[in-house]
């Protein structure tokens, strides 16, 4: 049995390692930097770097890297050895404070969205001391931010860190108004539930659609899918359990609180959930989790699929983004509490989230907008592209009683007075959960269910932090100027509920009726990435980011360009893959099978004209029509692909891809998927859904 306490964090230069290896004054200075964000003096950085190097070498590390998160959505690293030459021809292992604090990778090939020319190569990485350094594959990894020569953010972490500072500042203003002077920091916290598929590695390698794109572009529905509901929470198979056990061990070594694991709804689908931690650390941990899932799977002759919709007809994979805000004194600001002051404070933070989500529906949709997630949102396992909030029956009743000024029947016959009255006992599980809601209150946090499984959580949390900070800032401005705090607080909460209650919906988000109802309420329905992304550069959204310094105007526009380019490139790769698979695999396979049928019919006729070849003839006619159709649709898709470049700028290209390329892909798939059940297994060129999902 593993000694979890012994291995946990063993590959992390955490506080325990710092305390053990750093002089007391150095440790205190570093701790102050971590907690307050103050600059770390160069002389102190040298001491930290030397201690970190000695620790890493003892753990077997020979190199270090500034580990960062560019706009590719994955992580990046450039390894440098600790080795330095001496005059006598020997060497010494060195690592300076300067190397710890700042790096200079080549930034020319990373997405910049027009922030810089390709030939401008200089970029900088800056140490993020709030996220502990760790050892991975014999390399000391130092979490960093990544920016251009001109200081523009070229990564996902920098804006997230900025947003965390912003929500900290605005939340502290609110807490001060309620008399809370103990808290000196408010942290946005996160716990991402990661869904994924595991398939046999040998089968994966036989399908170039999975290899090139991460999802199946062809595949007929198997006789059995998830209809029996027998996979969800079912007994974990030994091969998968072995993978999970090793994955946990690798994650625990990296200080990642991997806690919950189970089978998900679809065959071959699973989930891992960690314990909550600060948003930037949670982001780092989730990136590491996805990387480790892929690495560990290979060791078990498996492949981990993180695409949002790797298989048509069964559930796709999301990443439920559990978001909350807490003080450094341990107070969860989305916990209702038990005293009148805590109740009122909770209600103010609650309505600030309600207003933020309603006011910035478009930004929340944009935060999860990818080509892959477009296949998942609105399907029967994921929320629609419509943003709404689930509060549950009891909390909704409380909110309605505040708005109407009527009695809250479950408590008393008296009207509720904010800040004086006390809410009824409000346990975390006081109401049922709503799996269909995109943004659900679950006791002391909100679960943002729209995030795609392959996405970095940096973007969604950056936006959540910023939009809530914006509303808190507005509330603080009003309350700080009020002559009567309680009176203004009552009015503010009531008015906010009245204005934004249309975003609250506790029903079935999957239903067609909700789509109609949402439109009546004036809620946006940005069905695709192409519909959503242009909203990013709307004046109100640019003003939001620039007001708080989370993103500059140029950084906002760069992200619009990068995300649209990624959408176009992703679908272009998928379309090219489909054409190649159709022309080189599917059509030749069908023709080969048809030849066998034709030869069989000819042999029968050679024996006797009286022998019936009706079966072969009928099947050949069906196959001939379908394969001709597939050939035609492959040619049509190829022609449409050629039109992408000529369609205009990236905005026009994205629209063209959505309106022309995707329908052409669907048309080709329809023909190919109709052929699959009719062709003998011996001739079909790649593993079927049944083989992939029930390996």
Task: Walk me through what this model shows.
Strands 9, 10, 11, 12, 13, 14, 15, 16 and 17 form a 9-stranded mixed beta sheet that branches. By secondary structure, the chain is an alpha+beta fold. Helices cover about 50% and strands about 10% of the residues. The model is unreliable at about 410-415 (pLDDT under 50). A hairpin with a 5-residue loop joins strand 3 and strand 4 (about 90-95). The two termini are about 30 Å apart. It folds into 3 domains: about 5-155, Ubiquitin-like (UB roll) (Roll); about 165-550, Creatine Kinase, Chain A, domain 2, CATH 3.30.590.10; about 565-695, Four Helix Bundle (Hemerythrin (Met), subunit A) (Up-down Bundle), CATH 1.20.120.
Secondary structure blueprint with pairings:
Elements: H1 4-7, H2 15-21, H3 24-36, H4 42-58, E1 63-67, E2 79-81, E3 83-85, E4 91-93, H5 97-101, E5 102-103, E6 123-127, E7 134-136, E8 139-148, H6 157-177, E9 186-200, H7 201-205, H8 208-213, H9 238-253, E10 258-263, E11 269-274, E12 277-278, H10 279-299, E13 302-305, E14 319-327, H11 340-359, H12 361-366, H13 371-376, E15 389-390, H14 393-404, E16 439-441, E17 446-448, H15 458-481, H16 485-500, H17 512-521, H18 529-532, H19 539-548, H20 553-607, H21 614-642, H22 650-675, H23 689-693
Helix pairs in contact: 6-15, 9-10, 11-15, 11-16, 14-16, 15-16, 20-21, 20-22, 21-22
């Amino acid at each position: 049995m593993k000694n979890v306490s012994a291995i946990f964090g063993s590959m992390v230069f955490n506080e325990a390692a710092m305390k053990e290896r750093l002089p007391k004054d150095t440790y205190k200075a570093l701790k102050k930097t971590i907690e307050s964000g103050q600059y770390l003096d160069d002389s102190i950085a040298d001491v930290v770097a030397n201690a970190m190097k000695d620790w890493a070498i003892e753990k077997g590390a020979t190199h270090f890297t500034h580990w960062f998160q560019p706009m590719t959505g994955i992580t990046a690293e450039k390894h440098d050895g600790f080795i330095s030459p001496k005059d006598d021809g020997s060497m010494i292992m060195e690592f300076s404070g300067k190397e710890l604090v700042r790096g200079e990778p080549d930034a020319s090939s990373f997405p910049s969205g027009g922030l810089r020319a390709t030939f401008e190569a200089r970029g900088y990485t800056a140490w993020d001391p709030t996220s502990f350094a760790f050892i991975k594959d014999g390399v000391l990894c130092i979490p960093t931010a990544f920016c251009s020569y001109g200081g523009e953010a070229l990564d996902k972490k920098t804006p997230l860190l900025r947003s965390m500072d912003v929500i900290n500042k605005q939340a502290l203003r609110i807490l001060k108004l309620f008399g809370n002077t103990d808290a000196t920091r408010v942290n946005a916290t996160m716990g991402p539930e990661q869904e994924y598929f595991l398939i046999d590695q040998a089968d994966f390698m036989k399908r170039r659609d999975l290899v090139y794109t991460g999802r199946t572009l062809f595949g007929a529905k198997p006789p059995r899918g998830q209809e029996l509901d027998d996979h969800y929470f079912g007994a974990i198979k030994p091969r998968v359990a072995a993978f999970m056990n090793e994955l946990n061990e690798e994650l625990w070594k990296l200080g990642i609180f991997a806690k919950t694991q189970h089978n998900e709804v679809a065959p071959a689908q699973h989930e891992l959930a960690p314990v909550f931690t600060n948003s930037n650390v949670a982001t780092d941990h989730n990136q590491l989790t996805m990387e480790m899932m892929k690495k560990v799977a290979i060791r078990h002759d498996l492949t981990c699929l993180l695409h949002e919709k790797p298989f048509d007809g069964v559930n796709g994979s999301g990443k439920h983004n559990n978001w909350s805000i807490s003080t450094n004194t341990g107070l969860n600001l989305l916990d209702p509490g038990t005293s009148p002051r805590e109740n009122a404070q909770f209600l103010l933070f609650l309505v600030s989230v309600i207003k933020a989500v309603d006011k910035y529906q478009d930004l929340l949709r944009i935060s999860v907008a990818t080509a892959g997630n477009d296949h998942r949102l609105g399907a029967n396992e994921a929320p629609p592209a419509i943003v709404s909030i689930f509060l549950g029956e009891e909390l909704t009743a409380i909110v309605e009683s505040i708005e109407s000024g009527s009695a809250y029947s479950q408590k008393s016959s008296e009207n509720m007075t904010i800040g004086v009255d006390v809410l009824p006992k409000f346990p975390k599980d006081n109401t049922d959960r709503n799996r269909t809601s995109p943004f659900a209150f679950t006791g002391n946090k909100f679960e943002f269910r729209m995030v795609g499984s392959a996405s970095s959580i940096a973007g969604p949390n950056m936006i959540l932090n910023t939009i809530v900070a914006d509303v808190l800032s507005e509330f603080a401005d009003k309350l700080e100027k009020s002559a009567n705090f309680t009176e203004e607080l009552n009015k503010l909460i009531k008015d906010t509920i009245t204005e934004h209650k249309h975003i609250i919906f506790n029903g079935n988000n999957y239903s067609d009726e909700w789509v109609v109802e949402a439109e009546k309420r004036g809620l946006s329905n940005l069905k695709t990435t192409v519909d959503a992304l242009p909203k990013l550069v709307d004046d109100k959204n640019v003003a939001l980011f620039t007001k708080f310094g989370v993103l500059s105007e140029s950084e906002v526009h760069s992200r619009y360009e990068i995300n649209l380019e990624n959408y176009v490139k992703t679908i272009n790769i998928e379309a090219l893959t489909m054409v190649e698979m159709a022309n080189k695999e599917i059509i030749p396979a069908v023709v080969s099978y048809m030849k066998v049928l034709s030869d069989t019919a000819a042999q029968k006729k050679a024996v006797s004209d009286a022998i019936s070849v009706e079966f072969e003839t009928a099947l050949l006619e069906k196959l001939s029509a379908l394969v001709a159709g597939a050939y035609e649709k492959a040619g049509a898709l190829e022609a449409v692909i050629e039109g992408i470049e000529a369609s205009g700028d990236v905005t026009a290209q994205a629209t063209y891809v959505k309106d022309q390329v995707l329908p052409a892909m669907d048309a080709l798939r329809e023909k190919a998927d109709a052929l699959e059940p009719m062709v003998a297994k011996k001739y079909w060129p790649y593993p079927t859904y049944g083989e992939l999902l029930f390996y």
